[in-house]
Specification:
The complex is a heterodimer of chains A (about 250) and B (about 800). With about 250 residues, chain A is of the alpha/beta class. In chain A, about 30% of the residues lie in helices and about 30% in strands. Chain A is globular. In chain A, about 50% of the residues are buried. The N terminus of chain A is likely disordered. Among the domains of chain B are: about 120 residues, no CATH class; about 180 residues, no CATH class; about 180 residues, no CATH class. In chain B, helix 9 packs antiparallel against helix 10, helix 9 packs antiparallel against helix 19 and helix 19 packs antiparallel against helix 20. Classes of the chains: A alpha/beta (about 250), B alpha+beta (about 800).
Chain lengths: ~250, ~800
């Protein structure tokens, strides 16, 4: 397979341990009488501490891949290993525990709980985590130390997204999965959010996967994977990482 | 079908669970309305037809004895349409194989053919044969109580003469729908029988040959009834006239009317509660629907649909729900109405039922349901109509929450984040939460109203028979007798103790109010019969003056303490006296007037006379005592306490059971409707929130807690005010049941509260479980992609 050979040849730092290993992952959705092939045999390895950007057009399969990695969906065939465990064999309750203990999610539309303040939205997760950051500390990491007791309705979009990031990282997840985190934001606030993600990746060493269709964001990644029509069409390391503050789109 | 209507049908289908819950609550209101009102209509119609077809008299005049020739004088009075004279005789009835004392009243009918007035409705058998003097027709309930059929025989003792009679028919008459023996509190068909005999043999037995002792008549249209009554009283005065009276004062008619009136009160209150709750539910659902469809509404307007078109679109949906509720409610209500009417026909002892569902009732039900539906949804529909397209294209701004009061008071630390979510969501829309609580409270209240009758009846019985009327046996003589008769009664083997009383038939008059009743005179410090206030304190009779039952004194006669009431005695010399009202006693049963027996004897200008006695007896000698009493011709009425109790319970059981079932059923619908809708709305409002939490690693149990915790709090908060509301509702119903027969006290046993709370909790759990199933199917992936 060309793609996997490519993977091996350009692996950024093979001394780092593998977090995810996907082999021959396909996903077929039955939409009425039509079968939709969202993924067609994806092989992929993600390593500790990597900042990966998944690029692709709408319908390329990037969200499906993210959902499968995050334990929200199961592949039709193929295997997905997290460390040495096969996610495809997990029952629903085990998948829940897997998400709870290892995965941080950031959504395009933040999905904050409007009835809880910033601090409480974070606490929502820290209350059920094993070794979490203090909510205030997590919010400080995303530069929201002074907005702790504000409700979502009192925060701007960028601030809401940073609360969402704080909520995702507060449990010290090994993996942070972000689906279009800047999709609903303007350039300036988008950059602030990306800076927060970059800082978390750098300071906590969290493996971070960002889905976007914004090619410019790829410049800040360690590694850029391109999906098209359910297949990985390129997987490249990025030797010249650009800090988010220098991005434009 | 145009596209907009198609959208409405699909929206309705999508909301089918909630729409069904609303239809169910609304239909319950319609069903209650139809059930009570068709029962009321049917009872009134049945009574009306019965009275008309069986020629129920309009004026009644009892007297001691008058020659038959007197009839012509009264018939000649201007305004008298039809007139009939009768002989009415008290009797003791001897039934083979039944030792308990049975008394009755025999009314004469013509030797052949039908009576001119108060005709008989024959249920079985035939009318009397001319020329036979041993035939009798007995009342249907009496026949049922003893299993009599035409052809059976019984013995009656009239004026000391024992006579064997053959039953040729069973039936009833409009005069004796409600059959109460003299001095009795409740109908007792086993120990009191109404019978009809031919005039000739009855006159012979009762020494009334060529005479009569009762007149009934009807009036010409426009006749002056009161004038005729006055003339009759004048004419009958020398013949021991007991005072003529109108139909409205006839005891059977009066009781029946009061019972029928009670139905009307129930018909008013329950539909209001149900339709109020349904209006609230519609409001919540339609408001939510409009909120969720902001962008669709904007698009419609952008395409050129006008505001009225959008409003009509939502109103159509509401009216469809109303229509479904009316159809279902009318069907269920008519079905229940047939059942309830059947129960009431039995209870009131009407011979037949003319069930009718009047079209105007359906129109009324439709109108009030539509009004309730529209009132509930007007605000939401206005929002939809007024929405500016450009504004609606943008999503709704996030809801602004704040800390709840308890958190602000420093108790924040006590609550986890999920608990805070619950508390803040409840306080976020306080009116909605409040109305949900109110809806559940009403369910609780309705449940209590279905059960409290039983508690109350038991209590009334305990008080009346446990504290006030404590005799084992009650005897009534055919006329006032020397007190010495008591010594003779007490000397019977097995009679342990006895007390005497004097009872005299009177008309009490105050200003323009008057009421026919008995004054009971008894021993001021009686052991068996005592007056007991509702605070359960025995009440000693003053030596002089009259004591009135409070309902009689205040409500019927408009008297206050210290006023003087005019006592027109309707027996003997018929003195008329002014007597001061020295006390009013609050009692649950009957409408009595009481005096010290000696004071009553003085008022009547008579010696130490008695009308009857109360006895304590030894059960072992029961049958022997009954047998001895039957041999005494002067004893015309007897009652055994235990029987009166049991019979009353039997007559009430069916209605109470029906009420309990129906109210439990309807109340569960309300509880379920409110809780299920509340849960579904919360689920749509917060489904995304809850799915996000699932993605973040919350388990199903944990997110269920957030959703169902809110319901649990609303339900638990609703129960205590619901129990209070229930108390109020029961008090209202109790008050509306006030009648001559009883004033219903508000008695609620702990098990009634517990039952109401339990049914509400079960409904809550059931609706919670239904919604919980939907939580399990939350689409986690959708959440990542969509904004609300």
């Amino acid at each position: 397979m060309a793609a996997s050979e490519l993977n091996i040849s350009i692996r950024p730092d093979s001394s780092l341990s593998v977090v995810f290993q996907a082999k021959g992952v396909t996903k077929i959705y039955q939409m009425g009488e039509v079968q939709v092939h969202a993924l067609r045999g994806v092989d992929l390895e993600l390593r500790e501490g990597e900042f990966v950007v998944l690029l692709g057009a709408s319908g390329s399969g990037k969200s499906t891949l993210l959902n499968i990695l995050g334990g929200l969906d199961v592949p039709t065939s193929g295997t997905v290993h997290y460390r040495d465990q096969d996610l495809t064999t997990f029952r629903d309750s085990v998948l829940t525990r897997y998400r709870r203990e290892h995965i941080g999610f950031v959504f395009q539309f933040y999905n904050l709980i409007p009835s809880l303040t910033a601090r409480e939205n974070v606490a929502l997760v820290t209350e059920i985590a094993k070794n979490p950051l203090a909510p205030a500390e997590a919010l400080k990491l995303v530069d929201l130390g002074d907005r702790l007791d504000h409700f979502p309705a009192q925060l701007s979009g960028g601030e809401q997204q940073r609360v969402a990031i704080a909520r995702a990282i507060a449990k010290r997840p090994e993996v942070l999965l972000c689906d279009e985190p800047t999709g609903a934001l303007d350039l300036k606030t988008g950059i602030v959010v990306l800076e927060a993600l970059e800082r978390v990746n750098r300071e906590l060493g969290t493996t971070t996967v960002v889905i976007t269709h914004n090619v410019d964001i790829a410049q800040m990644a360690d590694r850029v994977i391109h999906l098209s029509d359910g297949r990985i069409v390129s997987d490249e390391t990025n030797p010249d990482k650009v800090p988010p503050s220098e991005l434009t789109w | 079908m145009n596209a907009l209507d198609l959208k409405m049908w699909r929206d309705l289908w999508r909301l089918r669970g909630q729409a069904f819950a609303i239809v169910a609550v609304m239909a319950s209101g319609v069903a209650c309305f139809i059930m009570f009102l068709t029962t009321l209509d049917s009872m009134q119609l049945t009574r009306e037809l019965y009275y008309r077809d069986y020629r129920f008299a309009e004026i009644f005049a009892p007297l001691k004895r008058a020659p038959q020739s007197l009839q012509a004088r009264i018939a000649a009075l201007n305004g008298v349409a039809r007139i009939d004279t009768r002989v009415i005789a008290p009797a003791t009835i001897d039934i083979e194989g039944f030792s308990e004392p049975v008394t009755g009243v025999i009314t004469s009918i013509p030797d052949s053919g039908e009576p001119l007035l108060n005709n008989l409705y024959l249920r079985s058998g035939r009318l009397l044969d001319a020329g036979r003097n041993d035939e009798v027709i007995i009342s249907e309930p009496f026949a049922e109580a003893h299993g009599f059929k035409p052809g059976d025989k019984l013995h009656v003792i009239v004026r000391g003469k024992r006579k064997q009679l053959r039953i040729v028919g069973t039936g009833s008459s409009p005069e004796y729908i409600h059959q109460l023996r003299p001095g009795g509190t409740f109908p007792d068909y086993k120990h009191f029988g109404v019978m009809w005999m031919a005039r000739t043999p009855l006159s012979h037995a009762y020494d009334m040959e060529g005479a009569f002792n009762n007149i009934v008549l009807t009036l010409d249209e426009g006749a002056k009834g009161q004038d005729i009554i006055d003339r009759i009283d004048d004419i009958l005065d020398p013949y021991g006239g007991g005072g003529a009276y109108f139909r409205k004062d006839q005891s059977s008619h009066r009781f029946l009317s009061q019972e029928i009136d009670q139905i009307e009160n129930l018909a008013n209150i329950f539909p209001i509660i149900f339709l109020g709750v349904a209006a609230f539910l519609l409001n919540v659902v339609v408001t939510r629907l409009v909120g969720a469809q902001r962008e669709q509404i904007a698009a419609l307007k952008a395409f050129g649909y006008g505001n009225p078109a959008v409003a009509v679109h939502f109103l159509k949906m509401v009216l469809l729900i109303v229509l479904a509720a009316v159809v279902l409610g009318v069907l269920v209500g008519a079905w229940l109405g047939v059942m309830l009417s059947g129960i009431y026909v039995e209870l009131f002892r009407l011979p037949f039922l003319n069930f009718e569902l009047r079209p105007q009732r359906i129109i009324q039900a439709t109108t009030i349901t539509a009004i309730a539906g529209l009132l509930g949804t007007l605000a939401a529909v206005r929002i939809a109509a007024k929405l500016k397209p450009a504004e609606a294209m943008r999503p709704e701004s996030p809801a602004a929450y704040r800390q709840t009061l308890i958190e602000a008071l420093g108790m924040k630390r006590l609550f986890s984040a999920p608990t805070r979510m619950i508390l803040r969501h409840i306080s976020h829309k306080p009116l909605k939460s409040l109305l949900s609580v109110l809806g559940i409270s009403f369910a609780c209240a309705i449940l209590m109203s279905g059960r409290f009758q039983e508690d109350t009846v038991n209590y009334m019985m305990d008080i009346h028979y446990g504290l006030s009327q404590r005799d084992d046996l009650y005897l009534l003589f055919n006329e006032a007798t020397s007190r010495k008769a008591l010594a003779e009664l007490v000397s019977l083997p097995g009679v342990e103790f006895g007390e005497v009383f004097r009872a005299v038939s009177v008309r009490l008059r105050h200003e323009h109010h008057h009421y026919r009743t008995y004054i009971q005179g008894f021993e001021p410090r009686g052991e068996i019969k005592r007056l007991v206030n509702t605070d359960l304190q025995p009440f000693e009779l003053p030596r002089a003056g009259i004591v009135l039952n409070e309902y009689l004194g205040k409500n019927i006669l408009g008297l206050k303490l210290g006023d003087r009431v005019t006592v027109e005695v309707l027996e003997g010399n018929k003195p008329v006296r002014e007597v001061p009202v020295v006390a009013m006693v609050h009692q649950h049963l009957g409408v009595g007037a009481y005096m010290d027996r000696r004071a009553l004897n003085r008022l009547l200008s008579e010696g130490d006379l008695i009308s009857g006695a109360y006895l304590y007896i030894d059960e072992a000698y029961e049958n022997e005592i009954y047998q001895r009493l039957k041999e005494r011709p002067r004893i015309i009425g007897t009652a055994v306490r235990a029987h009166e109790l049991a019979n009353f319970h039997r007559t009430m059981d069916d209605t109470m059971l029906f009420n309990a079932y129906i109210s439990a059923f309807f109340a569960s619908i309300i509880a379920f409707g409110v809780i299920y809708n509340s849960a579904r709305i919360t689920l749509t409002e917060r489904g995304r929130e809850l799915a996000s939490l699932r993605v973040l690693g919350f388990t199903r149990g944990e997110i269920s807690y957030i959703l169902l915790g809110e319901l649990a709090i609303l339900t638990l908060v609703a129960i205590p005010p619901g129990l209070l509301l229930g108390k109020g509702l029961c008090a209202y119903i109790a008050k509306s049941m006030d009648s001559d027969l009883y004033r219903v006290p508000l008695i609620l046993e702990p098990h009634t509260y517990a039952f109401a709370a339990l049914v509400v909790l079960i409904s809550a759990v059931a609706s919670g479980l239904l919604v919980r199933r939907r939580l399990d199917r939350l689409n986690l992936i959708e959440v990542l992609k969509t904004r609300e």
